[in-house]
Description:
The protein is an alpha/beta fold. It has helices spanning 10-21, 33-40, 51-60, 70-74, 97-106, 126-138, 157-162, 174-183, 185-189, 199-230, 234-242, 263-276, 282-305, 333-342, 355-358, 371-375, 388-391, 395-401, 416-421, and strands at residues 2-6, 25-29, 64-67, 79-82, 115-118, 144-147, 167-170, 194-197, 313-317, 346-350, 366-367, 380-383, 406-409, 425-427. α5 packs parallel to α6 (126-138) and α13 packs across α14. Bound molecules: nicotinamide-adenine-dinucleotide (NAD) and uridine-5'-diphosphate-glucuronic acid. Uridine-5'-diphosphate-glucuronic acid is lined by residues 121, 150-154, 210, 213, 217, 251-253, 255, 258-260, 262-263, 266, 321-322.
Amino acid sequence: xxxxxxxxxxxxxxxxxxxxxxxxxxxxxxxxxxxxxxxxxxxxxxxxxxxxxxxxxxxxxxxxxxxxxxxxxxxxxxxxxxxxxxxxxxxxxxxxxxxxxxxxxxxxxxxxxxxxxxxxxxxxxxxxxxxxxxxxxxxxxxxxxxxxxxxxxxxxxxxxxxxxxxxxxxxxxxxxxxxxxxxxxxxxxxxxxxxxxxxxxxxxxxxxxxxxxxxxxxxxxxxxxxxxxxxxxxxxxxxxxxxxxxxxxxxxxxxxxxxxxxxxxxxxxxxxxxxxxxxxxxxxxxxxxxxxxxxxxxxxxxxxxxxxxxxxxxxxxxxxxxxxxxxxxxxxxxxxxxxxxxxxxxxxxxxxxxxxxxxxxxxxxxxxxxxxxxxxxxxxxxxxxxxxxxxxxxxxxxxxxxxxxxxxxxxxxxxxxxxxxxxxxxxxxxxxxxxxxxxxxxxxxxxxxxxxxxxxxx
Length: 458
Ligand code: NAD
Ligand code: UGA
């Protein structure tokens, strides 16, 4: 089948490449012609493990091409996927400008009977609005509009495409339904569940899924706070609840507050849709506020707990909103670092992949290309992204580089006793802070963390 992706970003590029490797003929079009020129040279504008090799394979066999010419990109296509960004609007809702302008651009060039498939995350009713707009532009109702929301995660997009939990096919007519089924026929054959539904339901499913996942994270972050106060251990608590299959053990990792290009904007949009329809999503409204507060609270905790005087050097390891991506959109680092700067700290930062993107958002920080060099003479280290490189840090070397001894690990990458053994004071999430100044003395930690404090002793 001839497929065109409108928008060669994370979603357009990864799904386009994967569809091409399934045997479809795919053209990735982007309005940004420099991006297309780079893609033609396999100079990828994003870091996504496995993507470059998959792209090269698809191009080599002639199933994938890139273009910045709208007419030739779409005129032969059976299916045109819209994969442009849907950023937050100032009101908290969603800005659909890119979706509508993409629809307007492609309208005159579509062949009769083509199907537009909206893959961008859009609010309920958008497919219907695009359908009306296309009909107006063409003066005919010959184009169908379907919805096929995307559930991939950055950093594991290739695997997520190959092993989806389900595929949601939103169609309001038989032709679109048939087309979507034939695109994803291979998955159906191997037993991947297909949710075949209306476009409106597909749109609602996408937001409800992201809102629920974000809520799991918000919930566990609040439970982690309670564990810290009550002397509990979040790892045992999450294992204890996660083994209940009705709860499940995924997305229960405490962190510095969820970030990225999706959860923050999609929860805001979901809440705005609820308000608009008179069905307030109070849980999500609270979640959004709690997540924002968390980033500030964790920044404040660094200054307070390590008793940092203005002028102290703090090193931040990790700028990406999660590991295995160079994306910094709404990353915790972008809230925590400005707070530290405001509090008068000197901040040095390191990230294995995201430093380039972070430069546009951070000023007055020192950039380092080595975590150990970054930590030299720092009073405290703050770990914000769970990169494998950080998990493998040589703590002895790290401790030696520091002038202070505080490690704030907001991803729980280490065992408290291991860190304490290196003479570091270790503040992680959902576990008591380990105070030890004696490099070899871990005897006092033997009972940690199973000492549960009575509320009066907190
Ligand atoms: P992105 O910002 O990485 O890419 C969007 C691309 O669209 C850019 O390259 C931009 O130049 C291009 N574009 C904008 N207007 C255009 C137009 N009129 N014609 C052609 N190209 C145009 O965005 P993304 O992260 O890929 O997200 C796209 C959509 O998918 C969003 O709605 C997002 O919520 C959703 N989504 C994203 C992810 C993810 O992990 N990033 C996962 C699932 C769903
Ligand atoms: C998320 C969803 O997981 C995807 O299914 C969805 O397709 C995508 O949004 C989207 O709609 O764009 P993504 O933003 O790439 O994917 O990353 P996640 O792995 O979900 O992480 C989001 C944020 O939550 C990160 O800041 C991450 O560190 C945080 N997180 C995640 C936690 O703090 N704890 C967890 O247990 C999981």
